[in-house]
Amino acid sequence: MKKIITILLTTVMTLSISLTAFAVEIPIESLPHNATHEGMIITENLIGEILTEVKNGLGYQDAWTKANKKIFTAVLNRETNGNGYADLAAIARNSIWHYRDMYLRPEFHIQTEAYIKNLIAEVITEVENGLDYDEGLKKAYIIIYKSKNPQFNAEETFSVDSCYRDIPAVDSVLFTYARKHLHEAVSRRELK
């Protein structure tokens, strides 16, 4: 009897360690602009296993409910090193949405990532060669808008009250992959 209990406990512990080791990471391109690296790591530790479930088909609302409970509890128990609920929740929502959308539209994501890499290739090179990430991101967004409407004029559009702006409708996934490619360019620059 003692051997059976020992074997069962060992198996359960091994499985729990294995599941934790295979938890999905938060994609940097899905982070809110004001997110910190520490906030990302804390959120990833809290919801990594939930992201794995989302990647395998768990729906957005079910995942968000689980994640919200974990984050809320961790904040209340002061286990977030001073990071607040709003910041961690925003990171969680964005990453859950990103993985859920990838699950629902895998071909679109593959095509869009390649399309964006080609579309903003010059900006990627500029960022890799030293252009500030935020400046590169602004340039990339304008290129994306112009790909939908060649007459788009960013200076004119953004200088008027937001209710009068004429901004082309663009799937947010295009912006997500622009951020991804520019983050990768920054990483390559730092390795030089």
Protein model, in words:
The protein is an all-alpha fold and 192 residues long. Helices cover 72% and strands 0% of the residues. The protein has nine helices and no strands. The chain has helices at 2-21, 37-55, 60-76, 85-104, 106-119, 121-128, 133-148, 154-158, 172-191. The longest helix has 20 residues, at 2-21. The protein is globular and about 50 Å long. The model is unreliable at 16-21 (pLDDT under 50).
Question: What keyword list fits this structure?
Answer:
single chain, 192 residues, mainly alpha, 9 helices, 0% strand, globular
Average predicted confidence as pLDDT: 90
Judging from the principal axes of the Cα atoms, what is the shape? globular
Structural class designation = mainly alpha
Give the CA-CA distance, first to last residue.
60 Å
Q: Quick one: how many beta strands? A: 0
Computed CA radius of gyration, to the nearest angstrom: 20 Å
Strand-residue fraction?
A: under 5%
Query: Which stretches of 5+ consecutive residues score pLDDT under 50?
Result: 16-21
Task: Write a brief caption for the model.
The chain has 192 residues and is mostly helical. The chain has helices at 2-21, 37-55, 60-76, 85-104, 106-119, 121-128, 133-148, 154-158, 172-191. Mean pLDDT is 90; it is low at 16-21.
Helix and strand topology:
Blueprint: H1 2-21, H2 37-55, H3 60-76, H4 85-104, H5 106-119, H6 121-128, H7 133-148, H8 154-158, H9 172-191
